[in-house]
From TrEMBL:
Entry GO MF terms: metal ion binding; UDP-2,3-diacylglucosamine hydrolase activity
Lineage: Bacteria, Pseudomonadati, Pseudomonadota, Gammaproteobacteria, Aeromonadales
Organism for this UniProt entry: Succinatimonas hippei (strain DSM 22608 / JCM 16073 / KCTC 15190 / YIT 12066)
Name of this chain's protein: Ser/Thr phosphatase family protein
InterPro entries: Calcineurin-like_PHP (IPR004843), Metallo-depent_PP-like (IPR029052), Metallophosphoesterase_sf (IPR051158)
Keyword check for Translocase: no
Amino acid sequence: MLQTPALIMASYASLSLILPLKIRLFYKILGVGIIFLCALKYHFYARMGGILSPDLPSWLIVIMEAAFGSLIIGSFICLIKDLLFVLLFILRKCSLIKLKPKLFKLNVCVIIFALIFGFYGTCMQFFTPHINHETIEIKNLDKDFDGFKIAQLSDLHVGPLLKHEFMQKVVAAVNNEEVDLTVITGDLVDGRVEKLINEFRSLKDIKSPYGVLAVTGNHEYYSGSFAWIKALENFNVRFLQNEHVNLHKGNGTLTVGGINDGRSYGNELDKVFADAGKHTRVFLAHKPKDGVKAVDADLILTGHTHGGTMLFAGPLVADYNDGFVSGRYELENRVMYVSNGTGIWSGFSCRFLVPPEITIFTLKKA
């Protein structure tokens, strides 16, 4: 399924960037060959252990991901370039302008730009994610929870590329914010427990007094969700499986509920806040389309979309997620936040103007 769009992009990039140039046939064949080699990433992954967790050296995956990211960025820029060329052609025919850009220089600039941002967008996943602060005002918040801080991690995707060193940076960043509670909204992992569990050992070092609460994502389903839930409990992570917990501070209560990703166990929304009482409610879900159903929650935290990964892909990703893709959405009597993701899936790991994030929410009484 993923390979077909990649081949379409490669065909278009070849037609736009390489074939129109007045260069020797050998160089045209070479250029087209390189473009299609970039597009065959998923084909190689499928033959080397699978798309989810290919059995390849990390450095080779980074190169393949960067090359594929460059192809996507380059194809988008080509679309803009070609539309401008059509507009210029019409304007010249109407004798309105005489401008005729040099195709060779322009195409070389497109290739260089795409390569730079393709490699940068892929390598940035190894940096400490951006810290984003959000203040959430809630009318019925108990005064003892005024100023309560929640750190949201989402879409960590620990696996072929992101490992223990990345988790150490994330944990250090969370601890530096001195939060009260840490939540993880799904897609923690890409791979099996026996291969990757040791990469999560830093989770034990998170210093949030009210612990670490999590929900499953679709990648837990792919990786063996039953085994992962059991294994991560040893690192002080509690999964909310269509249920809630009540947190107490002074005389106040905060209810945090979480829903399973539908592919993992089946999500049962009506069970999450059953007998929860009329306290402030925070709802955790992996997918925005599951989160938006929680009409009785005050704050809804989700992920899954990676913020669209690339800025120009945002509208397409939003279309598959009920219109939600990144950031804060003010809904009727509630707020929903869709994280850009703290990590990134190694099968589509180039970000373009959509930085990874750790989000810190400060609850305030309205």
